[in-house]
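Q: For a teaching session next week I want to show students how multiple molecules come together into a single three-dimensional assembly. I've collected the sequence lines for a complex. Could you give me the predicted C-alpha cells for the whole thing so I can convert them for display?
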Amino acid sequence: MLLYLLRRVVYAVPIALAVGFVCFMLVQIAPGDPINAIVPPDAPADVVAQVRKDYGLDKPLPVQFGLWISKVAVGDLGRSLATGRPVWSDLRSAIGNTLTLAFAASAIGFTLGCVLGGLAGTFRGSAIDRGAVGLAVAGVSVPHYWLGMVLVVVFSVQLNWLPAMGAGPGGSSDWGWDWEHVKHLVLPAVTLSVIPMGIVTRTVRGIVAEIMNQEFVTALRGKGLTRWGVFRHVVKNAAPNALAVMGLQLGYLMGGSILVETVFSWPGTGLLLNSAIFQRDLPVLQGTILVLAMFFVALNLCVDLVQTSLDPRIKRA
Amino acid sequence: MSTTTTTAAEAELAVQARQAVARSEGYWAGVWKRLRRDPLTIACAAILLLMLLAIVFAPLLAPHDPYQGSMIRRLKAIGTPNYPLGTDELGRDILTRLLYGGRLSWFIGILPVVFAFAIGSTLGILAGFMGGRVNMAIMRTTDIFYAFPSVLLAVAISGALGAGIFNAILALTLVFIPQIIRVAESVTQGVRSLDFVDAARASGASGFTIVRVHVLGNVLGPIFVYATSLISVCMILASGLSFLGLGTKPPEPEWGLMLNTLRTAIYVQPWVAVLPGVCIFVTSICFNLLADGLRQAMDVKG
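A: Of course. Below is the structure for the complete assembly, covering every listed component.
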C-alpha cells in the first residue's frame, strides 16, 4: 500500500515534465518565430538579436526546454507582451477568482448530483429516476456558454435580479463573501454547475444501483436495520468512487471555465486566456495553461491517493 | 459401444446448434429489432436526419442570402414578416444563417471525431493487441494528454495555432484521439484473452490476420458507440471554440460564432440572440441520446 502510494507520487513527476514540454511546445507550434512571443514585432533588429541570445533562442530545442523549465521551476513564467508585467502577477489573482467560481459551481453541482443520483439509483425505474436521468443528459449536452446567455436574458435583462457580468466592487482582486460580491457569482456558478451535476448524477446513480443489488444490502434489511442504517452502509460503499469522479470534475471545471468566464466577464484564468488569445500574448497563454494543467496533475494525484487510502478494497501492490 | 454414444451425443449437439443458428436472425437484425422498440432513440435519429437534410438543402430552403445584410432591418424580432426568426446585428436573416450555419457546425462537430476514430482505434487496437513495449509507449503518451482537461487542451492548441477552421479541427482531433485510444485498448485487451484468439493463433494465423478476422469485428462496435457519444461533446467544444473566436471567422455563418456576435444584442432582442444555442443544444442532446440507444441496442457495456 505505502509502496503503491510512493510509486504513484514518483510517476507524477515524468507526467508533470511531459505536461511542461507540451506547454513549451505551444509556443513552438505557434505560427511565426517564437521570438515574437518575447519582443514586440516592431522592435529594431539589433534588439531582436540581443534578446534571441539572452533568451537562448539560438540554442537547440532541448537546451531551450531545459532553460525554460528551470525558470518555470522558480516561478518565472516570463512577461506579458501586452502589459509588460510578469505573467505570474496577473495569473495569481485570476487563479483565485477561478477557484472561487469552480468551488461554488462544484458545491452546487455535486450536491444536486449526489441527491439526484442517489434517489435515482435507489428508486430505479420510478418517475424520480427518469427525471434525474433526463436532467443529467440535458446537463452534459447543453452548451453551457449558451445556458449562461439564457440565464442572463432571464435573470438580468428581463427580471433584473442579478448582475450580468463582472465580479463585483473592487474588480478582480478584491473578492469577499458579502452579497455585493456573491450576487455576481450566482449566475456563472449555476451555469458552470450543470456539467458536474449531469456527470455526478449519472455516476452516483450507477454506483448506488449496483450496491443496492448486492446481497449484503438484502442481508442488512433482513436483519432489521432501519432505512437510515442501510443508507449509511450504501454511502460508505459508494463514497470512494463517487469522490474520485467529483475530484476530477473539480479539475475539469478549473480548466473548462473559459467559456463561462467569457460570457460573464468573470476575471479568472479563462478571461485571462481569452484576452491572451486575442492579443496573441503567448507568454500569458503558455503560463496560464501550464499552471492550470499542473493543478490538474496534482489534483489527479490527490484523488488517486485519497481513493486508495479511503477504500480498503483497493490493495494495489 | 462408447464410441457410438459419443457420436450420437455429438450428432444431437450439432442438430441443436443448427436449430439455434436458424432461430437467431444474426447480430445486426437483433440490434435493429431492439432499436425499433426504442421510440426515444428513433425520435432522436429522425430529428438528426431532418437537420441533416435541412442543412444539406440549405440553398433551396433558405429564404434569403446568408451574407447580405441591411442596416435598416437590423435586429428584428421573431415573427417579423419575411424574417420568421428575426434578423441579426447586421440585418441578416437568422433562419437563413441557422440553415447555412449548421453546415459548418456539423462539419467541425463531426469531422474531428471521425479522424480521432480512425487514428485512435488503430493505435488503441495496436496497443491492446501487441502489449509489451508498444502498449507502454502508446498508453504512456495518452497519459500526458489526459493530464489536460479537454476544453483546456482544445483552447491551448487552437489558441497557439491561431483562429481558423483547420486549426480548430486539428485541435479537437488531438483532444479526442487519446480518449478513443483508451477505450480501444481496453476492449482489445478483453478480446485478446478470449479462447478463439488463442485457437486462431494455435492454428498458425498471423497477428495481422487475427486482428482483421477475429478482433476488429468484436472491438469496432464498442469503439463506434463511444465515438458517437463524443460527437455530442465535440459539437459543444467546436461551437465553443468559434464562440471564443478561435474556430470559424466572420462573416461565415456558424452557430457558435453567431452566438458570440449576437451576444451584444441580448438587451435588444434577447430571444433572437439565443436561437443558435438552441440548435447546438438540440443537436448535441440528440447525438447523446442516440449514442445511449445504440449502446443498449448493441449491448455494449460501460
